[in-house]
From TrEMBL:
Entries under PANTHER family matching the protein: 3-OXOACYL-(ACYL-CARRIER-PROTEIN) REDUCTASE, 3-OXOACYL-[ACYL-CARRIER-PROTEIN] REDUCTASE FABG
InterPro entries given in the database record: KR_dom, NAD(P)-bd_dom_sf, Sc_DH/Rdtase_CS, SDR, SDR_fam
The species this protein was found in: Dyadobacter endophyticus
SMART domains assigned to the protein according to its UniProt record, in alphabetical order: PKS_KR
Alphabetized Pfam families for the sequence: adh_short (PF00106)
Protein name per its UniProtKB record: Short-chain dehydrogenase
Family to which this protein belongs: Belongs to the short-chain dehydrogenases/reductases (SDR) family.
Transmembrane feature ranges: none
Segments forming domain Ketoreductase: 6-191
PROSITE patterns: ADH_SHORT
Length: 236
């Protein structure tokens, strides 16, 4: 009998947390498609990921702000591997400014990518995840529960996402689809044009979030850790 494979689609897997999750899942033997707004960025990441396990990474150009583009990404996974087991809604941006300086454009981009983009990820994947009794994992943020100055757009997007994600969990769990909201604190990535350096050693590392996702999908089917806060142990 043919071995059943498992597959994942990670939005925004070209670098940072999404890439760390892709590495962890590929090490687990899962077939992983990553998306980016740029085919080149996605291709470069997939090239590196395929060195872990040849043929396990697939690069897809897809902008989470576009529902049709996300539907095509899901269809590409189904065409390639025949099933979708895990959707990791990770793509996100951070624009931080006091309210009197925050432009309408940056407000809109933050909401469109961080909140509406996840709704579109859910719309695009829920039929396939229902079929596979799969898992939808959101990368929200501690900014979805802790507000701060300069955070109006980011806080609004992540508070919204935490509410969205938990309501979605209630909608789909009886159909056998799990939903988990992961809420990290500071992770060492290039988020918000940050340049990673040795000074980031105290932060959560992308592979640590990868380990959490890897552990979540190994939980018994009966048990659902629905919301997870993750902090650096010794914040600087
Ligand atoms: P990075 O900036 O390092 O990576 C962001 C990823 O999202 C890239 O792969 C980028 O790809 C992709 N992306 C951005 N916009 C879009 C879009 N419209 N469509 C598709 N892909 C897109 O950030 P992180 O890895 O740090 O962030 C990942 C998630 O984690 C975000 O949701 C962020 O809010 C959240 N988070 C981050 C924390 C941190 O401290 N770093 C803490 C808590 C949560 P490309 O540019 O190639 O299109």
């Amino acid at each position: 009998m043919a071995e059943t494979i498992k597959t994942a689609l990670i939005t925004g897997g070209s670098r940072g947390i999404g890439y760390g999750i892709a590495e962890a899942l590929i090490r687990d033997g899962i077939y992983v498609a990553i998306t980016s707004r740029s085919q080149q960025n996605a291709d470069e990441a997939a090239l590196a990921l395929n060195k872990i396990r040849a043929g396990h990474a697939l690069a897809i150009e897809s902008d989470v702000r576009n529902l049709e583009s996300q539907e095509k990404a899901v269809q590409t996974v189904l065409d390639q591997w025949g099933r979708l087991d895990y959707l990791i809604a990770n793509a996100g941006v951070g624009h931080f400014a006091p309210i009197h300086e925050l432009s309408a454009e940056l407000w809109q981009e933050t909401i469109d990518i961080n909140l509406t983009g996840v709704f579109f990820s859910a719309k695009a994947s829920i039929a396939a995840l229902t079929e596979s009794k799969g898992y939808f994992i959101n990368i929200a943020s501690l900014a979805g529960t802790n507000f701060f100055a300069n955070g109006t757009a980011y806080n609004a997007s992540k508070f919204g996402l935490v509410g969205f994600s938990q309501a979605m969990m209630l909608d789909v769990r009886n159909a056998g689809v799990k939903v988990t909201t992961i809420m990290p604190g500071s992770v060492a990535t290039e988020f918000n044009n940050h340049e990673p350096s040795d000074k980031d050693a105290w932060k959560i590392q992308p592979e640590d979030i990868g380990q959490i996702v890897s552990d979540l999908i190994k939980m018994p089917a009966r048990t659902l850790p629905s919301k997870i806060e993750v902090r650096p142990t010794t914040p600087k």
